[in-house]
UniProtKB/TrEMBL annotation:
It holds the Pfam family AhpC-TSA. Gene3D superfamilies: Glutaredoxin (3.40.30.10). It comes from Mycolicibacterium fluoranthenivorans. Signal peptide: none annotated. InterPro entries: AhpC/TSA (IPR000866), Thioredoxin-like_sf (IPR036249), Thioredoxin_domain (IPR013766). It comes from the Bacteria. GO terms for molecular function: antioxidant activity; oxidoreductase activity. Coiled coil: none annotated. Residues 3-178 form the Thioredoxin domain. This is Peroxiredoxin.
Amino acid sequence: MSVAVGAKFPVGVEVETSHGPVSISQLLSKGPVIVGFHRMWCPFCQQAARDLVAVSDRLAAINATVVLVYRESVAEVDDSCSERGIPFRCVSDQHRALEIAADVGRFSPARYLAFSPMKVLRALQSGSRMGMSSRFLQGRGTFVLDSTGRVAYAHRSVTAADIPNIADVVAAAEAVAGGRPAP
């Protein structure tokens, strides 16, 4: 199932938190939900998380909930998000149920190598750390959902350095909060 703008996001799929399982559907009534599929070792994912942190006041003003989805264990996710000062819901999708349902695919080796070395340098200079794991070629995606679970914004990374434009994410969330179509 391809999750594109206008499509229903798989909101019923549960992910794990330190407080037990949660599904995106449980978060929809509060305001827009931003779901980001990230990798802990990835400097670009770390940059995307910092971009969201930088606009957290704007997101809080519209009651947006940010959920960052990782493949690592709940304990690893909690430790990493705490260490990095990420104030959002960081969840574990260790068995990839949500990732698969949202159709967040793997990068091919050629796609992974097609990124800009300058972007790596900027991400590392801004505090990111780079590492490797058995999930090295995993792709990323960012989605903004409305109160019905429909996708108002979708960004699928096409290279390792391809992170969503934070202004586009915020504009989509603000549009959803205001009952308008996303730009």
